[in-house]
Amino acid sequence: MPPTMEQANSNLQTTQCRRFKRQNQWSNLHTRGENDGPQRQKQDVLLAGTDAPLARRIKCDESKPFCRRCLSLGRTCKYISTNGLIDESEVVIPLEQPLHVSPRPKGVDSNPRETQIFDLLRTLTVHQLIGPFGQTYQAFWTVDALLATQAYPAIWHASLALSAMHHRMRLGKSEADQLLAKQYYTFSLTQYNISIRHLVDLTSKAHLSYFDKETVLFASILYVGICCAQRNTKDTKQAIAHIQNMLPLFYRWKFWELSPTSPGSSHTGRLHHDTLVQIIQYLEYQFDEFSDNFPGGLSRDLDRASTEPFKSVAEAYVEYVPLHYGTWICGGCPHPRRDDELQVRPFRDVKLDYARRLRSWKMRFRTLERRAEFERQDLHSIRLLRLLCDFEDIPRALYKEPKTETYWRHQHKFERLVDEAEALLQEAEGVMDLDTSSPVFSYSVNVCSVLRPLGIFCCNLRVRRRVIALLKRYPQRDLIWDGTLHTMFLEARVELEQGSLMRPVKEDDGVCGCVDAMFVCRFHRCSGGYNFLEAGGVEYTLRTGLDREQNKPGTVIRVTWD
């Protein structure tokens, strides 16, 4: 079981203590157990008049910006903060778990601060990057990714940057948290730039080996995570740019065909090849959905799908991902693939193949569900896959028959899906040892992948407001889809659609079929599009059916970050 956020944060903040006047006293701290507490002389303790830890005669241990003893009581420590005056490069960090080998790549120097962040990476960050489908990605993140940090300098620095930014994302808004967040940001930005320089040197070679290609692609994956973890629209735009730079290389090298396990292959990379391809596939689908492109990898991934019974939840999830994002083809995805080199089959053939693969997946998934020997984590993953699978039927039906009767038939499904999503979010805290009140970030599909489109497809005002409340209560990041940002836009969409009911439809245009708080007709229903601003921020343009027919610009909502 990975350590909790409180344990990792407490270990990290203990380094801020200024009460040890000699360097060798830090080594004494290493030799004691985690719960022994600091053993100071009376004259070394300065309480500064604080009365926060007086309850039950527990004294403040002065480990600002968090006091371990105050934190254990659930109290707010009022001891005067050190305001980050310690030179962090001179502090020796007590590690959560002892390291028996050097974590850094050969020839790369590291300081105590980097060792500390690496400890945070291996004991906390990688376990949260796994996401709700732990069996699929656990070995990749907890073993392969850590081994890659020891082999490739670009991966070493990028991993440290991601770990620091991921931890910064989960900090609160208190003064102490904001001080620590600035330190994490500075460290992450420094490591990110160093990693970029290593990658530039690597790609300047005349010939790239399999190891080099593996490094470039995995570093790009980490860069996307670094940008997404910053929770800023300007950095989301940068994350999309990293995906745009990575995908042409992925297709130019035909990396999915370079499997080390294929007969006669001489490739022996540090990372599991198929899992690396799956994560790239996930990023590609997200980018295509965000950019409203045809999912170019869909045809390839449908051809790779098996017809054999699923042996594990991991197999079911891997085959499900292209089916989830392939739902867009049911709506006649309007834009072609951006790469002319990729030969996509006729749209009708892909659509028929998609329907056949989806039926096959559902049959094999029902067989997998009947197995009784699942562990707790797998049961949670099974329930999430069931939720995702049940949701797929809704957009397919609405795309096929966008009539009032179709929406009425699915009203009970909307409510049932929201109930199940809420139950899964409540269960996630215990299953994955996560604090669901803090933002959640991983490289896999999560509950937000259902709630986000559900709030768009559903017309019932009460259900939509429940979706908005859940997204606010459980902030999750669906990779490049920011949950907080999407919640703001969803609220604006709901208010605009409800307000547009006051605008009558002319008889020449048609007949309005809206039902107050229950159904929005095609004239008043909104569609939206994103536009990133150069100065930072994002514009969200909402246009009703009437706006489109009358060629009106619609309503523009602008969101900026400080």
From TrEMBL:
Keywords associated with the record: DNA-binding, Metal-binding, Nucleus, Transcription, Transcription regulation, Zinc
Regions that span the bilayer: none
CDD domains found in the cross-reference section: GAL4
Alphabetized GO MF terms: DNA binding; DNA-binding transcription factor activity, RNA polymerase II-specific; zinc ion binding
PANTHER family: ASPERCRYPTIN BIOSYNTHESIS CLUSTER-SPECIFIC TRANSCRIPTION REGULATOR ATNN-RELATED, TRANSCRIPTIONAL REGULATORY PROTEIN MOC3
Name by which UniProt lists this protein: C6 zinc finger domain-containing protein
